Amino acid sequence: MASPAGQGGRPRQPSLAQLRAFAAVAEHLHFREAAAEIGMSQPALSGAVSALEEALGVQLLERTTRKVLLSPAGERVAARARTVLEAVGDLMEEAEAARAPFTGVLRLGVIPTVAPYLLPAVLRLVHDTYPDLDLQVHEEQTASLLDGLAHGRLDLLLLAVPLGVPQVTELPLFDEDFVLVAPKDHWLGGRGDIPRQALQELDLLLLDEGHCLRDQALDICREAGRDENTPVTTSAAGLSTLVQLVAGGLGVTLLPRTALRVETGRNDQLTTGYFADPAPSRRIALAMRTGAARQEEFEQFAAALREALRGLPVRMVKG
């Protein structure tokens, strides 16, 4: 048999149809049975096997009037063909899984000032509505989350916006007001009309550097006219510690409404006050890579999450 050649004398690649035809013949050693199994006519099946022999440059079958036998080369090629076809089948299954929404792994990044208060609702949504979704949660600060999104380590983020980052699309969920948390008997406790200007002279406690909530609180203070040189003498790594410092009389702080019940509900040494409209607030959103392959899925997830969060003291934002 002549060596296989295509244009320029290069070997021709066998097609999947040729491999499938030969694998069926190798299994049944009968052309009619093999053709019936793969839904091909006998002439087409025979032609596919002959084309494979020509492409590979080896004789795969020994044909007689009564039976079909594999040649020594045919036995080796048959084993390889089955391996290739099995691998192609696995590839098609993976592609099918990728096409099916809300299946496979979803790596969700969440900032620390959101995670404890929204994750219960997120986890219930996934458990009840998307049981085939493998949700993996990563709690990190904003800069780390954005790096993970950019480099493909994370798929979707749940955080405060706006981000102002190129190639990142934000899917807004809700706006929530900030609440003043102060020591018990503080003169602003219980008020519902606190002017922002009250922040100008208060001893304000903030989170450590790197937390977006710290930056948001400082922005609010600047808008209220607080002198940028007014010192912030104490900071904390998390909201729970921050609230304990307030309860100890070291100052006041700002908490987002979603964190209020969890962080202050069991501490009788705290009081809260609400700002006059328009109250300082932050927006929470999902964020994804612009043009992400799963963009439609993530948009549906955002819509479902808005519904799941409607019981919170927040203002929902249309997608």
What brief labels describe this structure?
single chain, 319 residues, alpha/beta, two-stranded antiparallel ribbon, 12 strands, 41% helix, 21% strand, rod-shaped
Reconstruct the topology from this structure.
Blueprint: H1 16-28, H2 31-38, H3 42-56, E1 61-63, E2 68-70, H4 72-99, E3 104-110, H5 115-129, E4 133-139, H6 142-150, E5 156-161, E6 168-183, E7 206-207, H7 212-223, E8 235-236, H8 239-247, E9 253-256, H9 257-264, E10 270-274, E11 281-289, H10 295-308, E12 315-316
Parallel strand pairs: 3-4, 3-5, 7-8
Antiparallel strand pairs: 1-2, 5-11, 6-9, 6-10, 6-11, 6-12
Helix pairs in contact: 1-2, 1-3, 1-4, 2-3
Specify Rg, calculated over alpha carbons: 32 Å
Main sheet specs: 8 strands, mixed
Cα separation of the termini: 66 Å
Helix content: 40-55%
What overall form do the CA principal axes indicate? rod-shaped
Along the chain, the helix and strand elements come as HHHEEHEHEHEEEHEHEHEEHE
Round the mean pLDDT to the nearest integer and report it.
88
| Total number of beta strands | 12
- Structural class call reads alpha/beta
| Number of alpha- plus pi-helical segments | 10
Low-confidence stretches: none
* Binned strand content: 15-25%
Protein model, in words:
By secondary structure, the protein is of the alpha/beta class. Helices cover 41% and strands 21% of the residues. Strands 3, 4, 5, 6, 9, 10, 11 and 12 form an 8-stranded mixed beta sheet that branches. The chain has a two-stranded antiparallel sheet with strand order 1-2. The protein is rod-shaped. α1 crosses α4 (72-99).
